[in-house]
């Protein structure tokens, strides 16, 4: 280090001396050489001391920085050492914990093995005891294994029946709380909104004549007039001793109406002979066709549906002359159309499509005497051939549950049809059919085991079943009611609905003497 300082001082001194020498040479001739040397020495000495101080300070500063850096590195190393020591301690602790867990797991496995062996031993012992008990029971009861199994199965079957009855009661309560409320709201609202005349029509084809002399003119010479009239109209004319009345009888209500109108015209005209009869009947037939078409259009306009083909309107008009249990079928169709539309409106469906389904559901009754099959199938075929939508065709085919419903409109049409047919005063039923239906209801219920007595009440709307309390308990009664209702649905045809009520009563009698 001293050699470096001396070299630096010598170099500086040389530079200074050279500088002063140069100055002396150029402009300081009056100064002597010795003075210049002394000044240069003094300056060099001062410069040397200054430089030595600067070098010392720089060295001191470097030493301090180096010492600080070394101290920082030592501190970092100490921190790393402490971290390593801590990590080592943690690893040692974890190893110790693992060793403890291994010892606990080994102990647990040993215990489980001991318990497994004990359980296996107990199971073997239990199996042995069960075999001994079964053999002892067989000896005591005198039953074979098959007999005991059969008894157990019967007991299980009885328990399952009881549980099934409980589930049926629970499900029926939930269904009634939801479905009955909603159905009553929809049907009740529709019935309240649509009010039609609650009357039944009775069609009697009788014709008043001015005098009994007209009967002879109607019959004609040797009966030629009446035979010609019956041949042209296809009806039977009954001329008896009833004063002032001639009766027209025919299965086809349209033909009967044509014959009635034609005979009234002939009586008013007074000219009754075969050629005149043929002319009047042909004229009346044309008028009747126009009237039928007009009736179909008026009914369609009343319901508010359009786009019906003329053939469909004609069939609809023919329903005016058709009755079902004395109910006019055309008015019934109009009523069903409005009810179906109202229920569709409440359900957010197409109102006009619902009315169309209800209006055309019985169209097959206008041609059921001309084609083979029931009126649902005939009506569906007519509507399909005339380009009606599939919902309308399916409603006509399935409104009596002849097929599985595929559209909601079929269900609504069936509900509206039942409402229209079952309301008070809508239809009349013959006594013979009425009595036979009640007998069939009672016979269906009597066919179930445990039933003692059956009574059909409220015009066949309710069946009251009295069961033997020894054979049928409360839970089984619920299942029995459901089974009877299903049997009635599958085996009988009836308007509206039939309610099945199962009654179970236990009486205890004591006699005091």
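-> sequence recovered:
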């Amino acid at each position: 280090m001293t050699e470096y300082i001396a070299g630096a001082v010598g170099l500086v001194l040389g530079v200074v001396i050279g500088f002063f020498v140069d100055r002396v040479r150029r402009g300081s001739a009056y100064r002597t050489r010795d003075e210049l040397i002394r000044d240069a020495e003094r300056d060099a000495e001062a410069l040397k001391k200054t430089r030595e101080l600067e070098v010392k300070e720089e060295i001191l500063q470097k030493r301090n920085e180096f010492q600080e850096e070394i101290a920082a590195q030592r501190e970092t190393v100490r921190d790393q050492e402490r971290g390593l020591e801590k990590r080592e301690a943690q690893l040692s602790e974890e190893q110790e914990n693992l060793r403890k867990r291994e010892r606990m797991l080994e102990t647990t496995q040993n215990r489980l093995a001991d318990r497994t062996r004990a359980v296996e031993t107990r199971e073997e012992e239990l199996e042995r005891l069960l075999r001994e008990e079964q053999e002892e029971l067989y000896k005591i009861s005198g039953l074979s294994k098959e007999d005991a199994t059969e008894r157990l199965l019967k007991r299980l079957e009885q328990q399952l029946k009881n549980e099934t009855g409980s589930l049926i009661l629970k499900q029926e309560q939930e269904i009634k709380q939801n479905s009955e409320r909603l159905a009553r709201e929809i049907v009740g609202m529709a019935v309240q909104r649509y009010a039609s005349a609650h009357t039944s029509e009775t069609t009697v084809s009788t014709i008043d004549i001015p005098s009994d002399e007209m009967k002879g003119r109607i019959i004609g010479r040797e009966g030629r007039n009446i035979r010609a009239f019956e041949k042209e109209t296809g009806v039977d004319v009954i001329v008896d001793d009833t004063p002032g009345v001639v009766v027209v009888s025919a299965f086809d209500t349209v033909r009967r109406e044509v014959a009635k109108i034609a005979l009234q015209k002939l009586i008013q005209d007074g000219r009754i002979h075969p050629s005149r009869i043929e002319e009047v009947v042909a004229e009346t037939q044309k008028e009747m066709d126009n009237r039928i078409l007009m009736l179909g259009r008026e009914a369609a306009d009343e319901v508010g549906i359009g786009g019906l083909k003329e053939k469909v309107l004609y069939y609809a008009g023919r329903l005016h002359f058709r009755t079902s249990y004395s109910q006019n079928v055309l008015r019934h169709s109009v009523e069903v159309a409005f009810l179906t539309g109202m229920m569709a409106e409440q359900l957010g469906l197409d109102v006009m499509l619902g009315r169309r389904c209800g209006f055309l559901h019985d169209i097959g009754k206008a041609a059921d005497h001309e084609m083979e099959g029931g009126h649902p199938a005939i009506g569906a075929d007519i509507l399909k051939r005339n380009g009606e939508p599939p919902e309308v065709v399916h409603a006509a085919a399935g409104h009596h549950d002849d097929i599985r419903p595929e559209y909601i409109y079929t269900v609504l049409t069936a509900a509206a049809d039942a409402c229209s047919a079952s309301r008070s005063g809508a239809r009349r039923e013959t006594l013979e059919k009425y009595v036979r239906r009640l007998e069939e209801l009672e016979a269906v219920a009597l066919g179930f085991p445990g039933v003692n007595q059956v009574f059909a009440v409220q015009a066949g709307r309710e069946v009251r079943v009295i069961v033997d309390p020894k054979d049928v308990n409360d839970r089984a009664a619920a299942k029995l009611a459901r089974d009877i209702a299903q049997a009635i649905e599958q085996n009988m045809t009836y308007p509206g609905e039939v309610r099945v009520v199962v009654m179970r009563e236990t009486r205890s009698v004591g006699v005091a003497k």
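The beta strands are 206-208, 236-238, 245-249, 323-324, 327-328, 451-457, 462-467, 499-504.
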